[in-house]
Amino acid sequence: MLPELGHFALILALLLAALQAFFGIAGPAFARDRWTSAVIPAVAGQFVMIGTAMACLIASFVSNDFSVLYIAENSNSALPLFYRVTALWGAHEGSLLLWIFLLAAWTVAVAFGSGRLPRRFSARVLGVLGVVSLGFLLFILATSNPFLRLDPAAPDGRDLNPLLQDVGLAIHPPILYTGYVGFAVAFAFACAAMLEGKMDQYWARWTRPWTTSAWAFLTVGISLGSWWSYYELGWGGYWFWDPVENASFMPWLVGTALIHSLAVTDKRGLFKSWTLLLAILAFSLSLLGTFLVRSGLLQSVHSFAADPTRGIFILAFLIIMVGGSLSLYAWRAPLLKSQAGFEFGARESFLLFNNILLVIAAATVFGGEMAPLISDALGLGGVSVGPQYFNPTFALSMIPLLALLAIGVHAGWKRGRVGDSKQMLLVTLGVSVVIGLAVVYVIYSNGKLLTPVGAILAVWIIVTSFVDPIDRLRRKLSLSRSVLGMTVAHIGLGVFVLSVTAVESFTVERDVAMGVNDKAALGGFEFRFQGVRGEEGPNYDGVVGSVVVTRGGAPVTVMSPAKRNYWVTRSDTTEAAIEMHGGSNVLVALGESLGAGKWSIRFQVRPLVNFIWLGAGIMALGAGLAASDRRYRVARAQEAAVPASAPGANPAAQPTR
Amino acid sequence: MKIGKFLIPLGAFVLLAIVLAIGIKHSPEKGVIASPFIGKAAPQFSLPDLSQPTKSITTADLKGRWYAVNFFGSWCYACRQEHPTLMEVSRSRVLPIIGFDWKEQADSANEQDDLGRAFLNQLGNPYTLVLADRDGRTAINYGVTGAPETYLVNPEGVIVYKLTGQITKEIWEKEFVARVQGKPDKS
Amino acid sequence: MVGQAVNRARVVLLVLLLATSPCALAVDSVTLADPAQQARYLALTHEIRCVVCQGESIADSNADLAADFRRQVREMLIAGKSDQEVRDYMVARYGESILYKPPFNVRTAWLWLAPGILLIVGAIVAVRIQRQRAALVDQDNEPLEEDVRS
Fold it and tell me: What's the pTM?
């Protein structure tokens, strides 16, 4: 009963999405106000229907309804309740349901958070979001229906992949998707402007908070994924340049460029068509990412089960959405010109360089990601692209970016000149060099060429980020949330870069075969193996090892690495023991049993690794602060008093029709 | 160049869409690595004969006629599935099939060979000769990525075809027999 | 007493079960004596793809074949082969896609040259736009917001 209800709800959602798309676009286009006002009810209805479908699927999971194929494939009666719920997004069909649910949630937020936007403009935005939703609902109902029945019902399920039976699965996909899907809002704002044929002077200001919040979610989502793979996969890596990771990283890079470009468009009315293009690109990369991980085109430990028919469908959808919006862009963008200017060394200069470098970085990742496919399509034979390619090429564009950030973060708009702050820059650089070299050579030792470079740049960014706010506070000026947010976000970036530099330079690792009471030493710690004992979990059996850790003879802790064998899937996971001591993470993981009580054990000491995710979290916090700035709400109230088409409005922002 | 430069993104996307479409078309072959050995000499080996482990067979012993090399193992589920087909096509006696018993899991060489022999006793022996690749070095030398894999070697000792995965009658006829019988257009 | 025996038996059984699945963590039980060689070994095993487990290097893969590959690398290093010889050995048998670092040849030149070329193009674009905008500054009399610095 419940699955049928859920299925029916999805069909209704499809109809409502179609109505939303139609009324949202045709209403303003034909000046039919009755249609335009029907959009918001459609949005609400769609959200309710999709929510109902989610609820039905959750209820079916919880009640162990193995007559539903998706549940039979991904759950099991022995699976703890928590994972039975999170298993919903553990595989393809359910994750798509999560996708459209989050899209519906964003749409509702936009609908009710844009009360003071011009009616027709916001209707267009919602209409475009309706088109996206329509496409995904069609895809789900046609090829990836989570409510398909299994007849006769399975006696029990195939169980959730053990790697996913972890709290990471509960939070990483929902937050990641919230970010991914959130770029659809920026995309919709961009399409609405293009459909309108003009860019309102407040367009950027309306778009900014939505884009910045989506970016914040994506930042957190990606770092959660990194953290999760770090402790779950067992070998202490946090980023593999894996195709699925790249698929989320590319929209992030373009999204970062977008939020900076929006700032310029907001403040100076510049880069308008470029900002539109970035908004299209960011969401297009989200869609591309969604496509790539499910189409069977990429080989990855993360990818969903491959199915070329689904691949064809998504490709068609991609062609319509991306091809359509880029055509709209080619048609409308030439109209957007601005006569504003800026000196070399003004803030706009630095944001220009920021954008160019970020887009180059995204293009580099894209090239590496697509290289196997391109090589194959051109008949050039197979090629694989891994960290040995991505690391140097990514660093190539990022190192200049970091340096420019430190220099440019307090440049003035329009006429700001670097020369004005020369003294401050040299002082901060000097301080950073001292601190950076101290970190590299005093606290730790040995390092590669890039180690001092990375450390110095990271510290410089942090130090210069403080200059502006301290200066403002000294002059008794107010510190708006957007300035504070920007500062916090940049500091977060500095923390992130410093951590990555430390981790990449100073990690030490050893694999040792150990019997009971054997000792090993690494990174200043001593380890003594005490053997393993058995343990039994709700749906697995395991062995738990015991390793005594000391530093300089003084006891530090006892660590318990484990290996588990899950009954149903008969596959294992390695549960590495990870603890933070003195700023470094100590990782101990069980490898293979070598017989006679001996085990191969991996030891790893990674300095500052937790600060990688902390840094990312600080970045997201900064973004959240910035997005909540009152400026964005004040603008709408002002705007409501001045009709958008009033003559004498900002000539730089209103192009001639 | 007014409208021109704004069309670049669309143009780039069209190219991407083409690459993706080709990718989807080729995707059934994903994961199969094309062998670099096609057209090159079969790697040398010297391996014990499973039926007489004290005796070693080398590549030189096999030169001068067509033969197929089939890597299998008793641990390999897909090998069990392809085995009846191998039995059937071997009866036609078009060319000898040499079996390589690959990486049996046991503590001693004898036990490894026992596993291979038990497999053949149970399912039948389609092979003219069975060799034991106990440590897997020969398999790596041949660029084996898994079992079952089958190579076709010509009388000059050159590998002319490699099949990754289970053999079927159609593939046997089309790829192996056709080449042995000198049918045209096979390279 | 019985409990202990049962526990030990369970551990033994588990250990057997746990030995069988590929594509999980791989931990070597052998480390090369010479630290420089060990470092080369680690670098090389991270460069070579596991053909059984998608998207993992042989350093990370638990597959049996990956262990064989690692043994091969180890033996070649001990025998004094250079890094390039190890790579060539693998490529000769498995093709170029066995390495995570694409080679630099006619077929892959575009991939390696692209980032550098993009940077040059980016620099040219930046200069162009900057010049264009700098020329407009004096005629641009738009007032800026009070909040000049943000």
Answer: 0.90
